[in-house]
Write a structure and sequence with these properties.
The protein is mainly beta and 169 residues long. The protein has 2 domains: 1-67, no CATH class; 69-168, Immunoglobulin-like (Sandwich), CATH 2.60.40. It is 7% helix and 48% strand. The strands form 3 sheets. Strands 4, 5, 7, 8, 9 and 12 form a 6-stranded mixed β-sheet that branches. A hairpin with a 2-residue loop joins strand 8 (121-125) and strand 9. It is globular and about 55 Å long. The model has no long low-confidence stretch (mean pLDDT 85). This is Thiol:disulfide interchange protein DsbD N-terminal domain-containing protein. It comes from Rubellimicrobium thermophilum DSM 16684.
Length: 169
């Protein structure tokens, strides 16, 4: 089993655009999973007065600089197919992109909370990263995959590429 997360502290950058000048107050609730031996959902209320003039916090600037590359920035293009295997779907993904480094890993997430995706098995074939994962409905019903709603993240050597959606392959 693979776990992807953060230790100690995490900065989640958020860019806010105000409609007009003047101070602003931002409040809400962040829902996250906090894990040790098991993961527990946690609701974190927050409220902050934003500084007038849009001064940037250096921690936010550093988090934005350390974000994953987009598909365009990484010159990556993803295609995928989903074939029925009787109980669910066999998702096959091809990401054409230059290697990020040794031991590339792939994470596939769906925008559909009712869809379960297994941990992908990935290998490099020349200029493409090939990955396979199983997909099933969490309620045991029929399975459908919205290719546009997939988020594919490729990780290697402290670098990441995030690809939104995949074309028909």
């Amino acid at each position: 089993m693979r776990s992807i997360g953060y230790r100690e502290a995490v900065t989640i950058p958020l860019e806010v655009t105000l409609e007009g000048p003047g101070p602003a107050h931002l409040a809400g609730v962040a829902e996250i999973g906090v894990c040790d031996e098991i993961c527990m959902p946690v609701r974190l209320p927050f409220a902050v007065d934003l500084p007038e003039g849009g001064r940037r916090d250096p921690r936010i600037a550093a988090a934005l600089a350390d974000r994953p590359l987009t598909a365009e920035e990484a010159r990556a293009q993803a295609t995928c197919t989903a074939l029925s295997d009787g109980a669910g779907l066999d998702l096959r993904l091809r990401v054409a992109m230059p290697p990020l480094g040794r031991d590339e890993a792939v994470v596939i997430e769906s925008a559909d909370p009712g869809l379960w995706l297994s941990e992908p098995v990935a290998r490099r074939e020349g200029g493409a990263l090939i990955a396979r994962a199983e997909a099933a409905a969490r309620d045991g019903g029929p399975v459908a995959i919205d290719r546009a709603g997939l988020r594919i993240t490729v990780l290697a050597e402290g670098r990441a590429v995030e690809i939104r959606g995949c074309g028909a392959g």
